[in-house]
Design brief:
Blueprint (H helix, E strand, L loop, with lengths): L3 H20 L10 E8 L5 E8 L5 H10 L1 H12 L8 E6 L2 H12 L1
Parallel strand pairs: 2-3
Antiparallel strand pairs: 1-2
């Protein structure tokens, strides 16, 4: 069960990471549209699992590995934004949110 503090930090990280991905899309992420769908923070607030939805990407697993490789730069940018709200910026781990692909697959099966 998530505490109120965890929920507030999850929303803060989701908003700021979404802004980072939106503004950094042209240079860092090769023009891909990246949406932060969910953020889950551990109870000790030291780790965050970030679920991303990727739009015009053929090999999504490879692109998630690329983003995980850039975790240091993304965490640094996030730290500059949340330095007054958080004492420590959590370690970020990025995962693919494939719920839209699953919904599309179910939709195609029902046709």
């Amino acid at each position: 069960m998530s505490s109120t503090r965890q929920n507030k930090i999850e929303r803060l990280l989701q908003r700021d990471l979404g802004d980072i991905f939106q503004k950094g899309t042209a240079s860092l992420f090769r023009g891909k549209m990246i949406t932060v769908t969910t953020v889950r923070v551990s109870p000790d607030l030291s780790n965050a699992k970030v679920y991303l939805s990727l739009f015009p990407v053929e090999n999504k697993k490879e692109f998630i590995d690329y983003i995980n490789g850039m975790e240091g730069q993304i965490r640094f940018d996030l730290g500059k934004r949340v330095r007054h709200q958080l004492r420590k910026v959590p370690e970020l781990t990025f995962f693919l949110d494939d719920s839209l692909d699953y919904i599309d697959n179910i939709d195609n099966l029902l046709k």
